[in-house]
Amino acid sequence: MDATKDSMNETAFRAEVAAWLARELKGEFACLRHRGGPGDEEAFPALRKDWERKLAEGGWVGASWPQEHGGRGLPLELQLAFHEEYVRAGGPGRMGHIGETLLAPTLIELGTPEQQRRFLPGIREGREFWCQGYSEPGAGSDLAAITTRCWQDGDVWRVQGQKVWTSLAHESDWIFVIARSTPGSVGREGLTFLLMPLDQPGIEIQPIRQMTGEAEFNAVFFDGAATDAGCIVGKPGEGWRVAMALLGFERGASTLGQQMHFVHEMQLVVDAAIAIGTAFDPAIRERIADAWIGLRALRHNALRMLAGNDGGVRPESLMYKYAWSNWHRDLGQLAMDVLGAAGDVRSDDDTVRRLQQVFFFSRADTIYAGTNEIQLNIIAERALAMPR
Ligand SMILES: Cc1cc2nc3c(=O)[nH]c(=O)nc-3n(C[C@H](O)[C@H](O)[C@H](O)COP(=O)(O)OP(=O)(O)OC[C@H]3O[C@@H](n4cnc5c(N)ncnc54)[C@H](O)[C@@H]3O)c2cc1C
User: Fold this and answer.
1) Centroid of ligand 1 to alpha carbon of 88 (angstroms)
2) What's the 3 CA to ligand 1 centre distance in angstroms?
3) Which CB contacts under 8 angstroms, 24+ apart, belong to 286-292?
4) SS3 170
5) What's the pTM value of the predicted model, to 2 decimals?
6) 84 among known catalytic residues
7) Which string of DSSP letters, residue by residue, matches 79-119?
8) In this structure, which residue's CA is closest to atom 32 in ligand 1?
9) Is the pLDDT of residue 355 over 90?
10) Is 218 in the pocket of ligand 1 (CB under 6 A)?
11) Ligand 1 contacts CB of residue 229 (under 6 A)
C-alpha cells in the first residue's frame, strides 16, 4: 500500500467535499447549518428534503454503495472523511439516512434485481424517504415476539397490526415492515419482510411527543394495508434473516455520520465552559479531557470495526454501539453540568438549546438499535462466550 498516495488522495478528496459544501450550503440552505438530526428533527423538514436532492445532485447520497448500484464505492477512510468535512461545514442532520444506510445495503445484499432497480434510484436521488417498522408495543428488545400479521391476497400482500417508535414515519414515503406470515408460528420462524407505501387508506400514522418536546417518532397502525407481491425481500417466512442483516448495518456503519456530529457538540461544550467560566473548575476540566479522549477512542474504534468488512457486526466490535451511546449520554450530562443553572430553563440561546437537545436525546441513544442491557448480553454471549 502506498501510504503517501493514499493520504494525498484523502487530502484532495477532503478539499473537494469542503469546496462543494462551501458552494452549496448557503443561500436558502444557510439556515440548515448544524440543524436537524436526532433531537432536532422538526427543524426545516421540507428544506432538508430539498437539501437531500442537492446532495444527490452532487453525488453524495449513496456514495459508499458499489458503483454498479449507482454509488461511488467510497472506501471507509473517504466515507469518514466525507462525514468529518460535512460536520465541519455544518451540514444538517440527514433526512434520508434510513433508506441510504439501512435499507439500501440490505437490498444490495438480499434484494432481487427488480427491487434494486425499483428502489435504489429513489433513495439515491433523494426522492423517496423510508422508515423502519420493527418495534411493536409487545416487541422491542425481544423483536421475535412481534404479532403484526401479513398474508397474500391475490397480487398483493396485506398487513394488520401496529408498529411503534417509528422514527420519521410522518416524513416518509415508504416503510419496511417485519410481520408474521405463518399463522400460529412463534419466535423467528414464519416472519416476512415487506416494503410498503405509507400513503394509503390502510395506514394511519400517529406522532408521539418526546421529552425533547418534539415528535420525531410515531405509532403506525395497519388495517389491511397493501403492497405488491414483488415487494417482499427474501422469501416469505424468511424475514428474520433479512431483518437481522439490516440490523447489522444499523449497529455498524449507519450511525457513523451521526457520530461525527459529536465533534461539533464536544466543541460546543468546550466553548460554553470557557464562556461561562466552568472550564476553570478542575473537576469539569478533567471530565472535558476524558470526553475528548473518549471521542478519539470512538473514532479509532469505528475505523477498526468497519475496516475490511461489509458493514455488518464483527465479534471484536460488539462493544461499539455500547461505547458510543454511553459516551454520548455522558456528554449530555457534562453539557448540563457545564451550563449549570442556565441548562435548567428554556432558552433562545442557540448553544444552550442545542446542548439541552443533546442532554435529552442522548438518553435515547442507549435504547434504540439495542438497549444497553441487550448490548451487554450480546457482548457476554458472542464476544466473551459466557454461558447464557
Ligand atoms: C429515539 C428512538 C427511536 C426509535 N426508532 C425506531 C424506529 O424507527 N423503528 C423501530 O422499529 N423502532 C424504533 N425504536 C424502538 C427501539 O428499537 C426499542 O425502543 C428498543 O428495541 C427497546 O425496546 P422497548 O422500548 O420495547 O423496551 P423493552 O424491550 O421493553 O425493554 C425495557 C427494559 O428491559 C430491558 N430488557 C429487555 N430484555 C432484556 C433482557 N433479555 N435482558 C436484560 N434486560 C432486558 C431493556 O434493556 C430495557 O431497559 C426507537 C427507539 C428510540 C428510543
Assistant:
1) 32
2) 43
3) 287/334, 287/337, 288/334, 288/338, 291/266, 291/327, 291/330, 291/331, 291/334, 292/266
4) helix
5) 0.93
6) no
7) HHHHHHHHHHTTPPPPSSHIIIIIIHHHHHHHS-HHHHHHH
8) 141
9) yes
10) no
11) no
